[in-house]
Amino acid sequence: MLRVVPLTLAQANAAVARWHRHHKPVIGHRFSLGVEADGKLVGAAIVGRPKSRMTEQYRTAEVTRLVTDGTKNACSILYAACARAAKEMGFTAIQTFILGSEPGTSLRAAAWIYVETNDGGQWVHTGQQQMILGQTHGNRTDQPTDRKQKWQK
């Protein structure tokens, strides 16, 4: 039996550090949720503000990280729970981006809608410095630069 639980950013980031294949923990969030199986954390989602400056920042939430240990249905349960929580908080939309090579099965199962696939590339401007958990990144080399799919609900 899977159960959705609230998480602190520190708890969610610990799960990201442990399970995420290609992203590191994040600095901030609007909220984070976890999913437990028999009292054990098996997945986490971090919801923050949209990364794109062209997206409405105060009405749109973005799932910036979602990880699981592979437990069946944990991803789709987290995507659905994030959408419900964002709606109850007054957001008019929620979105996420996945790699172009990923199938989006969990998003489809949670009734999210595929919007488009972008061209990929660096999302951080040349020379821009960011402090991320004590590490300075200019032109980030720790982020995938291939095409990304945008999904919304």
Question: How would you concisely characterize the structure shown here?
Answer:
The chain has 153 residues and is α+β, with helices and mostly antiparallel strands. The chain is 20% helix and 35% strand.
Tell me what you see in this structure.
The chain has 153 residues and is of the alpha+beta class. The protein has three helices and nine strands; from the N terminus they run βαβββαβαββββ. The strands form two sheets. The protein has a seven-stranded mixed β-sheet with strand order 1-2-3-4-5-9-6, with helices on both faces. The longest helix is centred in the middle third of the chain and has 15 residues, at 74-88.
Count of discrete alpha- or pi-helical segments spanning 4 or more residues? 3
Average pLDDT score: 85
Widest sheet: strand ordering: 1-2-3-4-5-9-6
Q: Output the structural class.
A: alpha+beta
- Compute the CA-based radius of gyration: 15 Å
Q: What general outline do the C-alpha atoms trace?
A: globular
Q: Report the biggest beta sheet as strand number plus sense, adding barrel if it closes.
A: 7 strands, mixed
The secondary-structure element order is EHEEEHEHEEEE
Q: State the share of residues found in helices, binned by percent.
A: 10-25%
Uncertain segments of ≥5 residues (pLDDT<50)? 123-141
What gap, in angstroms, lies between the N and C termini? 25 Å
User: Strand fraction band?
Assistant: 35-45%
Count the strands? Answer: 9
